[in-house]
Automatic annotation (TrEMBL):
InterPro entries: Beta-glucanase-like, ConA-like_dom_sf, Glycosyl_Hydrlase_16. Residues 1-19 form the signal peptide. This is GH16 domain-containing protein. GO terms for biological process: carbohydrate metabolic process.
Amino acid sequence: MYTHQRLTIFLSLLSTINAAPPTISGFTLTWAEDFIGTANSLPSTNNWLIDTGTSYPGGPANWGTGEIQTYTSSPNNLRLTGDGVLQITPLLNRATGIWTSARIETQRTNFMAQEGGKMRIQARILMPDVKGAEAIGYWPAFWTLGSNYRGNYQNWPSVGEFDIMENVNGIDSVWGVLHCGVNPGGPCGETDGIAGNRACPNSPCQGNFHVYTIEVDRTVTPEVLRWYVDDVLFHSVSEGTVGTQTWNQAVHQGHFILLNLAIGGAFPNNRYGSATPVASTVDSRPMYVDYVAVYNS
């Protein structure tokens, strides 16, 4: 009965899927992914790297965050729906207690705002439709890392990290976070980073599509980062907050984009108590991504 109800809800969303990346006044579309492809196929390797296992080769264990799942390239965890949508599904093997999920990152590492210009990175995402005790441990995310991290994996957080959309334990809220400087402490207060959050406007974050955006503005002095959900500003950080040297390291370089759905880890634990999955935690609640787009002025 519940499975049928969820299928009905998803089918009702199909009319809102396939939204093309919109035109934004004052910006040019630099890059976009619409996830068009055959049902059950993987996202294009021309655009995406698929991360697998529990760490980068030579990188910190558990992806450096304490998350407990293993990432795979199985269509059970990562697939195109055939309707222009990417689906990432966390699964629990109840016999072994092992969680699996998926994480992808763009091949390109050069997304940045030019001097005197602006950049916007945004995606239309449906967070997993899970709440309360069933959601303990869920950690969906849409974020970026500075290009210098790729192949090094030991220079976080100085390379910069823009968390455009994070969510924890099925709470109706989106978090935007800047990570920078040194760990622990530093101008970004690591490991937490500089965070802001708010509830999604008009409908809950869970089970509904919303557009999550970061704007890097280098047209003003001091420069500034701004976070939006459905064009509602909910967080900002200026160059003056962290200092010019730290800002330049984090902002004045290319970034690559990541999408993933983790289980457990530091962010849920730091924000809302223990996020280790419990007996009531359910699996098979996907995150859906309609498009990802990058714009420059």
